[in-house]
Amino acid sequence: MKHVLALVLAAGLTGLAAIPAAMAGPTPQEVVRAEILSGWETPQGTQMAGLRLTMAPGWKTYWRAPGDAGIPPSFDWSGSGNFAGARIFWPRPDVFSVNGMRSIGYKHEVVLPIELTPGTPGHPIRLNGVIELGVCQDICVPVELRLRARLPTATPDPASIRRALAQRPVPGDQAGVGAVVCTAEPISDGMRLTARIAIPPMGGSEIAVVEAPDPGIWVSEAKVSRQGDRLVAVADLVPPQGRPFALDRSLVRITLLSGDKAVDIRGCKGS
Fold first, then answer.
1. In this structure, what are the phi and psi dihedrals at residue 173, rounded to the nearest 5 degrees?
2. Do domains 7-166 and 170-270 have the same CATH topology?
């Protein structure tokens, strides 16, 4: 039996009533299961843990930047005790295409490593979190998970967490990425970013995912082309106010995906 610290599913799992009654699929509690894994204490005094999400057959959930067809996950740890912060590490995601729309996420199972900072080092962390995410099969539904755990007193599962950490996209400076130059030009409702990335072909279809410094800024699906050993990605960034804005290009994040390869690029320089 898997070791589960504690898991409370929100009653009804918001939105699941929209699933057709004729669908001979899983019950709401079986669409996605969550468990907190205990890991280890780092030399900095933080606690490594993991969130394991297990989807029912045929279902998937989303990466931090899910694409136009996805639902971005959100995490609220405000009810936790002896807790000063959490950092989530995202393993390499898969790319899905349904009805011509692209989404990015995970199927079957994923472990998200989480580095937890205690308020008082050396004392247990009482984790009390609310996680909102989308899960999809033929339809997409929002799900709310409530998690409670005391760390590090549970039976640890460091192997799963270490495997997930090893599956993260490779940092650009370790993946042979050269100069990354971005130009930004105003458009009617925001800014158009053109990134020119010095990187040899990754093999197969290449996808670039652009993330703005502010998660409230909508980013379009990037159009990708090749100029030899230079990949060009063009995306529109539209803020809530719908007008041009000052973009700090050093805080732009670009993830390149191609098959089982992934590269994480942090920031770009102006032309």
1. -70, -15
2. yes
Give the CATH number of domain 7-166.
2.60.40.1250
Is the model's pLDDT at 76 over the cut of 50? yes
Give ∠ CA 191-72-145 in degrees, rounded to 5: 160
Write out the two tokens for 42.
Answer: 């780092």
For residue 219 the two structure tokens come to 């980013």
Contact call for residues 185 and 236 (beta carbons, < 8 A): no
Beta strand spans in 10-139 (E): 32-41, 47-55, 60-62, 74-76, 85-88, 94-98, 101-107, 109-117, 125-136
pLDDT digits (tens, 9 = 90+) for 125-134: 999 999 999 9
pLDDT band per the 50, 70, 90 thresholds, residue 256: very high
Higher pLDDT, 65 or 20: 65
Q: How far apart are CA 125 and CA 147, in angstroms?
A: 13
- Structural tokens at position 103: 């989404």
Sheet holding 261-266, edge to edge: 170-171, 261-266, 253-258, 207-211
39: left (phi over 0), alpha (psi -120 to 50) or beta: alpha
Contact (CB, 8 A) for 168 and 63 = no
pTM of the shown model? 0.86
In the chain, where the domains are located: 7-166, 170-270
For the domain made up of 170-270, the CATH class stated in words is mainly beta
Q: Nearest 10 degrees: CA dihedral of 115, 118, 122, 123?
A: -120
Higher pLDDT, 14 or 166: 166
Per-residue tokens: 31: 């669409």
Where would I find the H helices in 145-210?
158-166
